[in-house]
Predict the structure.
Amino acid sequence: MKNLKYYSFFLVLLLQLSGCDQFLDVNSNPNSPNSENLPLSAKLPAALVSTVNQETQQINQIGAFWGGYWGTDNEGANQFFDLKTYNGPGIRSQRDGIPVWENGYNNILYFRLIQDEAELQGANFYSGVSKIMQGWLFLRLVDFYNNIPFDQAAQGNAFLNPAYEPGELVYQKSVDLISEGMADLKASTTTTAENSGDLLFAGNTEMWLKFANTVKLRALIRQSEKGNQSYISAQIQAIQQEGSGFLALGENALVNPGYLNSAGKLNPVWENYYRTVDGKTTANHLNIRPTQYLVDQMNAKNDPRLPSLYQSVGGKIKGVIFGNPDAGNPEYDAAATSAFKGPSENSNQATGIFHALNQSSVLMTGTESLFLQAEAAARGWISGDAETLYNQAIRASFQYYKTNLNSLESYLAQEGVDFSQASNPIERIIEQKWLALNSVSSIEAWSDYRRLGVPNFPKTAATGIEGRPYRLMYPETERGTNLENVELQGNDKVTEAKVWWMK
């Protein structure tokens, strides 16, 4: 594994109480030696921004292509080649790849350094938050790579060749680490507020505890097909005994450092996928399109979120085929297919995934939490009413996409949507979860497909590609410094090797 030393360039990130003057990209180190005199209230927001930047850009983009949501028009046929062809070696490339591993472990390091300093100071709020976020990040890495270093990770120079641990064990240790963080939060005697630097919940311990329980519930739902019900039951019981509950309707984990209408300081999703600081359309907005499968599924359900998300062409929403097998067909030109809709195409009103240049970045939504609870209730894990939770989750999705709630009741009443008419309640939950997290938390669609095979969206139509993507390969940066441990993990091919919680 890359040694995770401090970067050779250092960032001094000065976060004021009212917001941020500078923003991190996912490769910046907010805990470099130049910032050693900064208080924890300045280091925490830097680590949170770095984490949410990775989540909303790198991770969401992978999920959007591999979860059945995104394709590209003819003009973008040569874009995102590695994702459209499941090119594992290209994705793991040190020069041109997608550094999920490197960014993930760097973010773990950021929070580990915050934890170490907080423990020296007896600052339980910061140690608690940092442990919860490390748990989140370790779980994410297992979902991409399966076996990874845990105990010997983020230890500086103590372990130059950190040992790998089984993905299932890392999952258990991550859940335990989150529980430790929750205990630290409860033990905190310091009153925290907006000046804590907590860009996620403004020092609200109750919300952090709900978020932590929701992350643990996601980790347990991932394991639904592995038959380890005794472990799941014990963890569910622990969550219930803790008593804080989960993120509910209207409760979201959002980060906003104070986005500004300035280059590099807009909301990253807005700036990368919609408009630049001078209002010009981005290349991604010109090239990315919904898949025709997604459009067909939403049309079949008379889904009113469809026109909230996409622009019509000739009175219809038109998608593309993932993998561009027919790139010469004018039917899939940019002018003939539907781009995302935003305020500029909606009378300057927020719509779909684009609300404003300073909109908050999504780490986790209450929508996802409610679907997780609905599935847990349908499985008999928790006592809530699955149908009520399911309906609330769809309502939350309508609210996020700025879809008129007057259409919600008729949407829910349709035979293909009504929970009470579902022959398979779990599949119905996952189908609606897929629609509800479209382009917001897209990675969950890929994970749910790997777990359940639902919904059965098409694989890439690119020529000569067999199979589907199950994981990422260990990166070249890791192979170059920790090859012996990498090779001990065996086959890591994208379309062959599986993550431990898959069927």
Residues 1-28, 30-34 have pLDDT under 50 and may be disordered. The longest strand covers residues 361-364. Residues 268-297+308-345 form one domain.
